[in-house]
Write a structure and sequence with these properties.
single chain; six-stranded mixed beta sheet; 35% helix; globular; ATP hydrolysis activity; nucleotide-binding; AAA+_ATPase; L-phenylalanine transmembrane transporter activity; L-valine transmembrane transporter activity
């Protein structure tokens, strides 16, 4: 059974189809990318999967269970974590506090007369920060982090929800070449260590072809091609629509 199955998904805004009948199947433990030009419908697709938009037609199944139309908090609760293009963190809190707030909510750990608020969830939070390579910055205000480290912190916040399927919307946006390279290795390592399935969008093609086990290409709200990286790289329609011939063999 695939971990994610999408059938006939459609969403239009003011009569314009953003997602126009998408079928998609993601197998367990894949690192799967969805690519395409700006406006192709990738982020809308992620919003439909994660409950931030309701679809006009179609179905979304997670581990065989239909989740179409569920609100975001329910979808997080069943094991789907989501990051966004625009980083969403609490800049006034420390790096550790950003993670710990999610750990406490996810684990439903409350305050008691016999515990100190500052210690609740610290061990789990530090383990998560170690995964995203921010443990040495745990006491820094999140607002002073570099753009790359902010993306890592957001990834840590998502990981703190204990997902089985991780949706990453442009996880290396704003990162330098060096940061992008280390993030590729980090995502691959986290997916392996936590037995995670990863579905992501990305514009940096070197990263896509380096880390993906399977790729789908969107254009004008539809998927025009799906396959392994070498198949996508050599697909003539993909080259014409998206790559402009840059990845021709």
């Amino acid at each position: 059974m695939p971990i994610l199955h999408i059938k006939g998904l459609k969403k239009a805004f003011r009569g314009v189809a953003a997602v126009a009948g998408v079928d998609l199947t993601v197998e367990d433990n894949q690192i799967y990318s969805v690519i395409g030009p700006n406006g192709a419908g990738k982020t809308t697709l992620f919003n439909l999967i994660s409950g931030y938009h309701t679809c006009d037609r179609g179905h979304v199944y997670f581990k065989g269970q239909e989740i179409t139309g569920l609100p975001p908090e329910k979808i997080v609760g069943i094991g789907i974590g989501r990051s966004f293009q625009v980083t969403s963190i609490f800049p006034g809190l420390t790096v550790l506090e950003n993670i710990r707030s999610t750990v406490l909510v996810t684990g439903k750990k409350g305050f008691s007369l016999f515990s100190q608020a500052s210690k609740l969830g610290t061990k789990d939070s530090e383990e998560t920060l170690s995964l995203v390579e921010l443990l040495d910055k745990r006491n820094e205000p999140a607002g002073v982090l570099s753009a790359g480290d902010r993306k890592k912190l957001e990834l840590g916040i998502v990981l703190a929800t204990k997902p089985k399927l991780l949706l990453l919307d442009e996880p290396t946006c704003g990162m330098s070449t060096a940061e992008t390279g280390s993030t590729i290795q980090m995502i691959r390592k986290i997916a392996q260590e936590m037995s995670l399935t990863v579905l992501f969008t990305e514009h940096k093609m070197d990263m896509v072809f380096n880390v993906s086990s399977y790729i789908s290409v969107m254009n004008f709200g539809t998927i025009i091609a799906s396959g392994r990286p070498e198949e996508i790289r050599n697909n003539q329609q993909v080259q014409e629509v998206y790559f402009g011939g840059a990845y021709a063999s």
